[in-house]
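Weekly sync, protein design subgroup
Attendees: M.S., D.O., the rotation student, P.L. (late)

Item 1: inverse folding check
M.S. brought a backbone from last month's batch and wanted to see whether the design step gives back something sensible before we order anything. D.O. pointed out we never logged the input encoding, so this time it goes straight into the notes. Structure tokens as presented (296 positions):
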């Protein structure tokens, strides 16, 4: 199976689960839940939930609980996009080819939609009716990984560094930390949560964690590159926005070709982390290559 077919099939499985588990309108909450659903179902690659599923399946786990766990990651990711687009943050009016949440529902509505998705992600993980086969210990581990990946030591912290760094001449070490937190942390967390679901040994967990670190970096390096080289139509959001906001990026440090080399090295580092695993990890190997080659 090609990686394109694999991603298509897994994306459908994830989105079918999202349709089953996601909240629906309820009288006075109709507009709020509509705003949550608007961004959650606006499209996207679903890379984070697919990574979680791919790692779990590589370790032999096909339990029903995998899907709500995977969906929790997409809820957190979508909340971060809603808030990242706000006027006080990146002030974007286009996301996935559609008006951003605050353009559609107003700034307050978008903030609350993001808050709703953030908390619903943890609702999914802690709901015994959805994750009945998980032990309490496993459930707590998953919640902790997600909280740390999404919080001040992960994605939120990275967003804070990003905002503070706009227009500043920051050192490369700061950019690397920014990327590892803002984008890399939740990608790494997705891999780690899949490893927890699959019952990874400590050695396997460490190998997958390192894989997640490297592909998380590769993903953001490629994002930096595409912001320079791709069109708004390809990206579904405004191209060239990083330069407009005077953001520190890999192309600003290394140029376009140097950035391609850095992305390729990160992918190669990710692949080296999987050397101990058999062909069940081939989807993860192909995913790393896909992240490097993507054009949106």
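Designed sequence read out in the meeting:
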């Amino acid at each position: 199976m090609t990686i394109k077919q694999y991603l298509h099939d897994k994306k459908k499985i994830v989105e079918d689960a999202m349709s089953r588990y996601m909240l629906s309108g309820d009288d006075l909450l109709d507009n709020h839940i509509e705003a949550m659903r608007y961004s959650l179902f606006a499209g996207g690659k679903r890379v984070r939930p697919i990574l979680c599923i791919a790692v779990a399946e590589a370790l032999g786990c096909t339990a029903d609980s995998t899907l709500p766990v995977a969906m929790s990651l997409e809820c957190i990711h979508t909340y971060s996009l809603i808030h990242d687009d706000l006027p006080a943050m990146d002030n974007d009016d286009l996301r996935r080819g559609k008006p951003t949440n605050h353009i559609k529902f107003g700034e307050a509505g978008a903030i609350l939609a993001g808050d709703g998705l953030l908390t619903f992600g943890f609702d999914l993980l802690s709901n015994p009716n959805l994750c009945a086969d998980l032990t309490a210990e496993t459930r707590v581990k998953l919640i902790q990984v997600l909280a740390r990946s999404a919080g001040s030591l992960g994605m939120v912290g990275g967003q804070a560094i990003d905002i503070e760094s706009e227009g500043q001449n920051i050192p490369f070490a700061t950019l690397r930390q920014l990327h590892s937190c803002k984008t890399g942390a939740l990608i790494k967390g997705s891999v780690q949560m899949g490893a927890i679901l699959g019952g990874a040994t400590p050695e396997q967990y460490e190998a997958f964690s390192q894989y997640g670190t490297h592909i998380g970096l590769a993903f953001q390096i490629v994002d930096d590159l595409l912001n320079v080289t791709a069109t708004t139509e390809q990206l579904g959001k405004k191209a060239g926005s990083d330069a407009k906001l005077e953001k520190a990026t890999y192309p600003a440090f290394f140029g376009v070709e140097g950035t391609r080399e850095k992305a390729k090295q990160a992918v190669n580092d990710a692949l080296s982390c999987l050397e101990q695993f058999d062909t069940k990890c081939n989807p993860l190997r192909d995913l790393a290559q896909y992240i490097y080659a993507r054009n949106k």
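Discussion: The mean pLDDT is 93. The longest strand covers residues 94-95.
Action: P.L. to compare against the previous round before Friday.
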